[in-house]
Amino acid sequence: MVLQALVDHKGRFTNINVGWPGKVHDTRLFWNSGLFRRLQEGIYFPDQKITVGDVEMPIVILGDPAYPLMPWLMKPYMGALDSSKELFNYRLSKCRMVVECAFGRLKGRWRSLLTRSDLSETSIPIVIAACC
Q1: Pfam families under this entry (predicted)?
Q2: How far apart are CA 20 and CA 112, in angstroms?
């Protein structure tokens, strides 16, 4: 079973989508999520901006290469890269470590998520959501 999650800068789960079969590609799950619809409609982060240094910029989410590039989604550059794009990818990867750590804490705290469950298919998403 696939868990798609949005994690804030402090490693807290702020949005989850669970219940899709494990063979579903991340992108398909994302396109069909309520999160994607709300982001597309501009209602997930309505008019919120942050200031980095002296630059005001919109709030964005960070994704891996499987996700589509969108105005509200940053993903790494692909292909042959110059040094500035490599530096961008490195810094983006460091930021995404917050997400990796959040999933690590989730699996460390709830070890039962790492093994096959005898629960029904309808109960498993409820348990995963409770763990998040």
Answers
A1: DDE_Tnp_4
A2: 18
